[in-house]
Amino acid sequence: GFRGVIAVDGPSGSGKSSVCRAVARRLGLRYLDTGAMYRAVTWAAIDRGLDLDDQPAVAALSRGLTLGISTDPAAPGIAVDGVDVDGPIRTPKISESVSAIATNLDVRADLIARQRAIIADDGGIVAEGRDITTVVAPDADVRLLLTADENARIARRARELHGTADQEALKATHAQIATRDARDSTVVDFLVAADGVVTLDTSALTFEQVVSTVLQIVDEQA
Ligand code: C5P
Questions:
Q1: What is the structure's pLDDT at 55?
Q2: Most ligand 1 atoms within 8 A of CB, residue of 130, 143, 144, 157 to mutate
Q3: What's the CA-to-centroid distance between 129 and ligand 1, angstroms?
Q4: Parallel, antiparallel, or unpaired: how do β-strands 5-9 and 125-129 relate?
Q5: How far is the CA of 188 from the centre of ligand 1 (A)?
Q6: Is a pLDDT exceeding 80 seen at residue 199?
Q7: 153-159-161-166 Cα dihedral, nearest 10 degrees
Q8: What does UniProt give as the signal peptide span (predicted)?
Q9: Which of 62, 180, 207, 210 has the maximum number of C-beta atoms within 10 A of its C-beta?
Q10: Cα separation of 112 and 114, whole Å?
């Protein structure tokens, strides 16, 4: 079977995390959530009481952290210096603060080096983020951009965050997604596919349809 590298980028709410996990499980590959790494550094910087805009201090912290990353798609997880932070990194507080860390170029250099080392390990992998197809693994065997129109993304995130997509949840989520996208776009262009990257618009597809389309693309491309 396929034992290569699948690189997947996309904005929040594109459904990429659950899709990538499912694809990795079906193909027996490892799974890497690079967003969790940016979230983990954000968590550590807040935990240590750092000023998130003090770029040299945050970069020094990042370089000194031991990130324990599970690449098992059935049990993904991340620990910072031995502390399991899988729950804490998903809070709104971290989502609101992560852009300050993702725009820190020295943190990016540190995390990108770690990501490349993980990807290069044995066993094939599905790696997802914002800059995997372009910067981290531009020579991946399969490169995909998952997109979805804004309404679809907001509805998915609202269900994730609030367990519902009612009017109130949609409104709260809309503000959050728009702000994060705008900030993230200043570092990496993850809304437009680079040369050779296949775009998959998931707006009108069910989860199962997205997974099977990705598997089909892997079959054709690899
Ligand atoms: O994917 P997720 O929403 O968990 O990513 C959290 C944040 O990490 C993003 O909003 C972005 O700022 C940053 N990120 C990044 N590059 C990546 C993955 C995530 O800048 N490859």
A1: 98
A2: 130
A3: 6
A4: parallel
A5: 10
A6: yes
A7: 100
A8: none
A9: 62
A10: 5
Give yes or no for a contact between 149 and 30, defined as CB atoms under 8 angstroms apart. no
Ligand 1 residue neighbourhood (C-beta within 6 Å): 12, 34-35, 38-39, 98-99, 102, 129-132, 180, 184, 187
| DSSP reduced 3-state for 169 | helix
For every residue of 103-154, DSSP letters joined together read T-HHHHHHHHHHHHHHHHSTT-EEEEESSIIIII-TT-SEEEEEE--HHHHH
Residue 12 labelled as part of a binding site:
yes
- Whether the complex's predicted ipTM is more than 0.85 is answered with yes
Tokens 């550590």 identify what position?
A: 44
User: Is 68 part of any known ligand binding site?
Assistant: no
pLDDT in tens, 39-92: 999 999 999 999 999 999 999 999 999 999 999 999 999 999 999 999 999 999
If you count them, how many residues does the chain have?
A: 222
Contact 69, 118 (CB under 8 A): yes
- Mean pLDDT score of the chain: 93
**Residue 153 pLDDT class (50, 70, 90 cuts):** confident
CA distances from 96 to 5, 11, 55, 180, 184 (A): 30, 15, 17, 7, 11
Return d(Cα 57, Cα 46) in angstroms, integer: 12
